[in-house]
Amino acid sequence: MSRYETGKLDGEFRSFPCAVSFSQNWTIPDIDHFRFEGEGEYEKAWENIEELKQDLNGVSEERPFKSRHRLFGWPDPVEGDMQLECQLVANGISYGKGYPNPMPELIKVGAKDWQLLLQIDTDEENPGWMWGDVGRIYYWIHKDDLAARRFENVRLFLQCS
Q1: Residue 42 confidence (pLDDT)
Q2: Could you tell me the residue ranges of all domains in the chain?
């Protein structure tokens, strides 16, 4: 990599140099990856999953927010499941007006073949990034495209609250 001048950008559009370090950590699927049938199961599971995620990500009452940039693993979605959206778009189905009902089985099965490639979180402290309203940018790639290094087929999502 090499540095180059970005040109004349307003302060809010500039990123700032910062150190990058890598560490291995555990990730788990979001609540939307599980099916619940019994009354109250969803709420109980949501509390347990959120508590586990906070423990895994080093979030506490003293530090309620910690930027979570990530290579691979499970995402920390702000708005919902992106694997299904990747599969819909890859099959020429626009989800802008809602999901097809009923959802074709081929779409549901193929959604699990999408892999989070990179998650870039809002990080005002270091590079000065703010994605929407404290959002995240996600890059997804199909497992076959990753194996063949076809990065031109990556899908990008911006989610914010």
Answers
A1: 77
A2: 11-159
| pLDDT bracket for residue 92 (50, 70, 90) | confident
DSSP code per residue over 32-65: GGS---STTHHHHHHHHHHHHHHHHHT--SSS--
Contact yes or no for 156/130 (Cβ under 8 A): no
CA distance 58 to 62: 10
The beta-carbon contacts of 90-97 under 8 Å, at least 24 apart in sequence, are 90/142, 90/155
Q: Which among 106, 107, 85, 82 has a CA at the least distance from the CA of 96?
A: 85
The answer to whether residues 141 and 115 touch, using CB atoms and an 8 Å cutoff, is: yes
Amino acid residing at 42: Y
Other beta carbons less than 10 A from residue 85's beta carbon: 19
pTM above 0.85, yes or no: no
The CA-based dihedral angle spanning residues 139, 142, 146, 148, taken in that order and rounded to the nearest 10 degrees:
-140
